[in-house]
Amino acid sequence: MYVETSVKAPTPTVTPTTPAKPTTSTKPVGNKGTTTTTTTKKEAPKTGDTMNVALYASLLLVSALAAVVLTTKKRITE
Question: Is 61 inside a domain boundary?
Fold first, then answer.
């Protein structure tokens, strides 16, 4: 039995918004026209990468140890 169905998604309504205007001071603040700059800590860019490097390093170590054990075991039995 075949039943034909159709689903129509509603069209999204977008309401435009005006961005907030930045507040800037035209007069320098401080000692008679000198400006001061503050240094901020630079953050790494957000890439979305959450890979655990320690996991892969430990897997590499375990596989390397297994290869060494198997090769020495093969040499001993021959």
Answer: yes
Side-chain-side CA neighbours of residue 60 (13 Å): 5
27 vs 44: CA distance, rounded Å: 33
Q: Is residue 59 part of a domain?
A: yes
Range of the domain at 77: 53-78
- Over residues 14-45, the pLDDT tens digits come to 787 887 777 766 665 555 655 666 666 777 77
Positive or negative, the CA dihedral 11, 12, 17, 22 is negative
pTM, two decimals, is 0.36
Of 17, 10, 35, residue with least CA distance to 25: 35
